[in-house]
TrEMBL record:
Protein source organism: Quillaja saponaria (Soap bark tree)
Pfam families: Glyco_hydro_9
Entry EC number(s): 3.2.1.4
Gene Ontology biological process terms, A to Z: cellulose catabolic process
Family from the record: Belongs to the glycosyl hydrolase 9 (cellulase E) family.
Keywords (A to Z) from UniProt: Carbohydrate metabolism, Cellulose degradation, Glycosidase, Hydrolase, Membrane, Polysaccharide degradation, Transmembrane, Transmembrane helix
InterPro entries in the cross-refs: 6-hairpin_glycosidase_sf, 6hp_glycosidase-like_sf, Glyco_hydro_9, Glyco_hydro_9_His_AS
Domain Glycoside hydrolase family: 56-457
Catalytic activity field: Endohydrolysis of (1->4)-beta-D-glucosidic linkages in cellulose, lichenin and cereal beta-D-glucans
Source organism, top-level taxon: Eukaryota
GO MF annotation, one: cellulase activity
The keyword Disulfide bond appears for this protein: no
Protein name as it appears in the record: Endoglucanase
Transmembrane segments annotated in the record for this chain: 12-32
Amino acid sequence: MEGKSRSRRGCCCWFLVIIILAIVVGAVVYTIKKKTSHSGDSASSPGPPGSLNKKYADSLKVAMQFFDVQKSGKLVNNKISWRGDSALKDGSQARLDLSKGMYDAGDHMKFGFPMAFTATVLSWAILEYGDQMDAVNQLQPAQDSLKWITDYLVNAHPSENVLYIQVGDPEADHKCWDRPEAMTEKRPLTQVNTSVPGTEVAAETAAAMASASLVFKKTDPTYSSTLLKHAKQLFTFANKYRGSYSESIPEVQTYYNSTGYGDELLWAASWLYHATEDKSYIEYVRDNGESYAKFGSPTWFSWDNKLAGTQVLLSRLTFFKAKDIPNSGDLQSYKETAEAVMCGLLPDSPTATKSRTENGLIWVSEWNALQHAQCDGESFTSSDLRDFAKSQADYVLGKNPMKMSFLVGYGDEYPEYVHHRGASIPADAKTDCSDGFKWLDSSDPNPNVATGALVGGTIPK
Ligand SMILES: *[C@@H]1O[C@H](CO)[C@@H](O)[C@H](O)[C@H]1NC(C)=O
Ligand SMILES: *[C@@H]1O[C@H](CO)[C@@H](O)[C@H](O)[C@H]1NC(C)=O
């Protein structure tokens, strides 16, 4: 049914924001060794990043508001005029408070797998760029949004081997077009447990909790240690009761199908090492690398595949923490594969992926097999990576053939027909589940601005 493709499309908006953050993260933590100086104008992005750029500061503020647009539960300091409290009883049938968390894209589902990934990447962005965010007053909003998700995840993990991974029934949800504040659909819960395992979703949730524990370590040590406790338990659960949630709960395949859990296990262990410095997690990534890391085959970082993120995260250790890690050379294969990912992204690299539009936007369709990528002897600096990341951000913000910002609410011209229930229905409309579709079908621009949403789907060349 329509709803499926809608949901898919919607989710792209949600995650592109994050992916851009991720590219920037990658660009900053990573420096490819320089053999021949490649970049003629490395002065264009002197590193390390320091000075504030108004364009990116403004777009960050816009992008951050999307988290507020998506919040479920009893809102605190709500600044989005057309949003209000919703889903207050989520989780009540299991005597849990699952009211918080965020809705997926334009619908009212709460999908634990992508939501946890969002939290992990938001944590990462805060850990790398917290000071920059703070300089433009975005650190507090970022931490608040992160906590809105981790509060939900903590409650969704009521005992060691039980994790609630979904609130809502996508079939029922997609038959309605209503505001979250007015929804009347049933809100069934789905869990994974020892008999119905979900390794990837449990491991991703562990990664979210472990990374967030680092974010809150100084400002809220009690909360931080609570998160870490959940992270460790979830990792053990994920690792011990192995099975893909896509196999144990086939219904999830229609929405956020997982193509495997090996990447999430390595990713979670990497975050747990950063959060605990417990060497057993390093042994874990070392021992399981051959099975799961796909060394030598670069992949795109996404909600389904975290290998590239894992490689960058572990490369970080070889750069900055090598002396603390016995045999850190064993992490070399992760670092080499991370380099191959960067080489694929850089447009002037001999191993650059062909998956980009004529105007240079990376376009993820299918990854070309880049088997022996080390930029083939050519080398690039961190400035090249940062320039590349900027080119992608600039494209999204308006430097494209349509001269249009693809970030809703940013610039003079941005999309006004967003597939988003709350944005499409006037806040004072008295519509219910099914007669709300007239708002979806309306030929007028959205009455409310889904600030911070990003265009997904096909982007013209
Ligand atoms: C385990 O999870 C499945 C799928 O969500 C559920 O049907 C089952 O009742 C759960 N098992 C227990 C013991 O609660
Ligand atoms: C989900 O992923 C698995 C593993 O890659 C694949 O076999 C299956 O066909 C996918 N399901 C859907 C509905 O795409």
